[in-house]
Specification:
By secondary structure, this protein is mostly helical. The protein has five helices and no strands. The longest helix has 25 residues. It starts with a helix and ends in a 5-residue tail after the last helix.
């Protein structure tokens, strides 16, 4: 795993110089990287669980993407930050799940479409961090 962690760290630091995900205008510093990856792990967890209910086959790809994001979290997370990072993941998962629920079970079609658009955008921002 340490070899994988080293490769992930090198990849992460290279990506940080090239991209600024989730609305950031500048390359991400290590703290922003950690927060971004943790948030994405939570978002993709919610997407995967939603897909289990409504689109089972799609959940397999999301599961792989989520695992890759979790590898990135583990690569940049200092040992003493586990509880804080878990909180970020949970908060992002709850927020993404709320959007997906709002999109799926909303009587207001316009609001449901907005929620779906937001949920899709947030998930794409996360999967866009991964190399294909």
């Amino acid at each position: 795993m340490s070899g994988m962690k080293t490769i992930a760290q090198q990849t992460i630091f290279g990506l940080a110089l090239l991209v600024a995900p989730l609305g950031h205008a500048q390359p991400l510093d290590p703290e922003q990287q950690l927060h971004t990856f943790a948030t994405c792990a939570g978002r993709l967890s919610a997407v995967m669980e939603h897909q289990w209910l409504f689109d089972g086959p799609a959940s397999e790809q999301t599961k792989q993407q989520r695992a890759a994001i979790i590898d990135l979290v583990e690569a940049v997370m200092p040992p003493d930050r586990g509880p804080e990072v878990l909180q970020w993941r949970i908060a992002a998962k709850v927020a993404q799940s709320a959007l997906l629920t709002r999109a799926t079970f909303n009587a207001d079609a316009r609001d449901a479409a907005w929620a779906q658009q937001q949920a899709t955008r947030f998930a794409r921002e996360c999967t866009g961090l991964l190399l294909s």
